[in-house]
Amino acid sequence: MKRLLTAVVIAASATVSWADGLKSLEAFMKNSQAGRAEFTQAVTAPSKDGQPPRTKNSSGQFEFQRPGKFRFVYTKPFEQTIVADGKTLWLYDADLNQVTQRPQAQALGSTPAAILASANDLKALSADFDLQSAPEQDGLQWVQASPKDKNGQLKSVRVGFAADGQLSALDILDSFGQRSLIRFSQLQTQASLPASTFEFKVPAGADVLKQ
């Protein structure tokens, strides 16, 4: 009986802990209208032909402002910039001096960017994702977001929050089995960001590809 009671208590505690994930996501979307952070990203491709999985690491800065504006600046190992200005998504590869331009509405519906910057609340986010709290792992509270569009390249994304409710990680799995783990640090929310942060100017001489 004592062992059964212990199991029930543990299960109940786990349920409460898991539920905090959705609460943290809801609070983040409600209270974080703008912000900036440093990030590291590890992209791991699935094993192929018996070879072990390979991981590529990168890092940079991330800024966002709701609704629908963000900037990812990759500084290592290569310089790349991704900007969403509310209407257009811009991708700039500095090495190639090439810009890819596409309508933002078509590009961001069922993507992790919608979680970070596009939707203002859980109801809006639920239009594109099935959301549920996930077990605590690595000291973080997680939310599992599964896109309702099963034909897209995104298979699932987990959003991780620290005990204080701060956004800490994104764990992204695409339809090809590639996993991207993004960890955020030095997150500053409610920051006042100038409008120019989300303006993209095509560099001189750059090729522009419209999609």
TrEMBL record:
The lineage of its organism: Bacteria, Pseudomonadati, Pseudomonadota, Betaproteobacteria, Burkholderiales. GO terms for biological process: lipoprotein localization to outer membrane; lipoprotein transport. The gene is lolA. Keywords: Chaperone, Lipoprotein, Periplasm, Protein transport, Signal, Transport. Residues 1-19 form the signal peptide. It comes from the Bacteria. PANTHER family: OUTER-MEMBRANE LIPOPROTEIN CARRIER PROTEIN (PTHR35869:SF1). It is found in: Periplasm. One of its GO terms (cellular component) is periplasmic space. Belongs to the LolA family. This is Outer-membrane lipoprotein carrier protein. Monomer. Residues 42-62 are annotated as: Disordered. Participates in the translocation of lipoproteins from the inner membrane to the outer membrane. Only forms a complex with a lipoprotein if the residue after the N-terminal Cys is not an aspartate (The Asp acts as a targeting signal to indicate that the lipoprotein should stay in the inner membrane). It comes from Delftia lacustris. Its main location: periplasm.
